[in-house]
Design goal:
Helix content is 24%, strand content 26%. The protein has a 6-stranded mixed sheet with strand order 12-13-14-18-19-22, with helices on both faces. It is globular, with a radius of gyration of 24 Å. It is built from 10 helices and 24 strands. The chain is α+β, with helices and mostly antiparallel strands. A hairpin with a 4-residue loop joins strand 16 and strand 17. Among the domains are: 89 residues, Roll (Pdz3 Domain); 214 residues, 2-enoyl-CoA Hydratase, Chain A, domain 1 (Alpha-Beta Complex), CATH 3.90.226.10.
Length: 437
């Protein structure tokens, strides 16, 4: 059944101002405590009353309730969370691609706040923050047991104000302090250029409100330059709006093709289809890696299942869950995992990710440093995949940075498309006399 598309965000991790989730809409008025086994709330109200009455210092009831809610959601999967009013407002603004902060993708690994990657040309990137860095303090406050949302809140702030991060990097004996000046982070989600032999190249850094229209403009420009094929680079793209992912996929597949479907605990299924009159039809290779998550995995999975493009790189992140954002009565927001999503062939990528058609790892060249790879299966309290059991693996390492000249994944993609174009242009052999009979 085809359903009405809703505003959804599917993203890997928390930026210094972007919360990584899948977002839909649900009315808080539809929730009722009556008859749903909430008798245990009696204990909660008793404790709240005792704290208010007897605690040695004056306490704020809202602070107590907010802390209790954070603790409750903290016992669920890593993508369910509570957003106080300010954080909820910022989340709504951030999907537009411009926000205040430092420009870091972060996650929690082994109970430690860890940098997934700095965003290019942001304060964090310019200060030398690297993927794999552990943030042990924010403005001298230890991050041990700090939630992602609390860490994001502490790193946010007005432009031209500073924040000091204490960083512990592999090989360092002690943490070092990095003082960063906050700035407005503008993420240009689409970058395009023409490579050798008229091969087009498009890099998607995130799925925002304008990504699909920017992609359409980039494709038209590339086609105007007579490209004969395309490399779509989704590496280190943490995701974004689901509708954007569907619209992006629609530019590479015919109208009416299933892109992804979701399924709730009760088995309720929602399907999302391509929608568009025209699409790019030339040969394609999609680049992915461990940082390709959620919306990126939706696009890669759909193009792979429909045999539209060859997928090249390494196993993707493996975030296959959907989070619904529920506005609360006081202006706060609840982000709650409500479903899992599946590729057109019915494959759950939760914890497993998308397996490339051509597996090719980047190598650290000339003594370049590496960092441990962080995936969904490494996050605390991650949801299981009902289709497969994940077995323990050795720690995987990846280069922190790779120069374009050492980017063997891109080089291999170009070589394959060159060969593709050569064979395509070879004229068919003339029919033999025997065949003419």
């Amino acid at each position: 059944m085809k359903v009405k598309r809703i505003a959804v965000v599917v993203m890997l991790v928390v930026f210094t101002a972007v919360l990584g989730v899948s977002v839909g809409r649900m009315s808080v008025t539809s929730v009722s405590a009556a008859g749903e086994g909430y008798e245990e709330l009696k204990t909660f109200t008793e404790v709240l009353s005792m704290v208010k009455k007897y605690y040695v210092e004056e306490v704020n009831t809202k602070d107590l309730v907010y802390s209790a809610i954070k603790g409750m959601l903290g016992s669920l999967d890593p993508h369910s969370s509570f957003m106080p009013p300010e954080a909820y407002k910022e989340m709504q603004v951030e999907t537009k691609g411009e926000f205040g902060g430092l420009g870091i993708q972060i996650g929690i690994k082994d109970k430690t706040l860890t940098v997934i990657a700095p965003i290019e040309d942001t304060p964090a990137y310019k200060a030398g923050i690297k993927a794999g860095d552990k943030i042990v303090k924010i403005d001298k406050e230890p991050t041990k047991d700090m939630t992602l949302e609390d860490a994001v809140t502490k790193m946010r702030g007005a432009p031209k104000t500073s924040v000091t991060l204490s960083i512990l990097r592999e090989g360092w004996q002690e943490p070092k302090d990095f003082t960063l000046m906050r700035d407005i982070i503008k993420i240009k989600s689409v970058k395009a250029k023409v490579l050798e032999d008229k091969i087009g190249y498009i890099k998607l850094s995130q799925f925002q409100e304008m990504t699909a229209s920017d992609l359409e403009a980039a494709l038209k420009k590339l086609e105007g330059e007579k490209v004969n094929s395309l490399v779509l680079d989704l590496r280190n793209d943490p995701g974004g709006l689901l509708n954007s992912a569907i619209d992006v996929t629609s530019q590479f597949l015919p109208k009416g093709k299933l892109v992804v479907y979701t399924k709730t605990r009760s088995g309720e299924k929602s399907e999302f289809f391509t929608d568009g009159e025209s699409h790019f039809t030339k040969p394609m290779i999609v680049l992915v890696n461990q940082g390709s998550a959620s919306a990126s995995e939706i696009v890669a999975g759909a193009l792979k299942d429909w045999n539209r493009a060859a997928i090249l790189g390494t196993q993707t992140f493996g975030k296959g869950s959907v989070q619904t954002v529920i506005p609360l009565s006081d202006g706060a927001g609840l982000r709650l995992t409500t479903a899992k999503y599946y590729t057109p062939k019915g494959i759950s990528i939760q914890n497993t990710g998308i397996t490339p058609d051509i597996v090719l790892k980047l190598e650290a060249k000339n003594g370049a440093k590496e960092h441990p790879v962080l995936r969904e299966k490494d996050l605390a309290r991650h949801l299981k995949n009902e289709q497969t059991d994940m077995k323990p693996e050795d720690v995987e390492m990846a280069p922190i940075e790779v120069d374009e000249k050492d980017d063997i994944q891109l080089q291999r993609a170009v070589d394959i498309l060159k060969t593709w174009n050569i064979f395509r242009d070879i004229p068919a052999p003339p029919a033999s006399a025997e065949n003419k009979k």
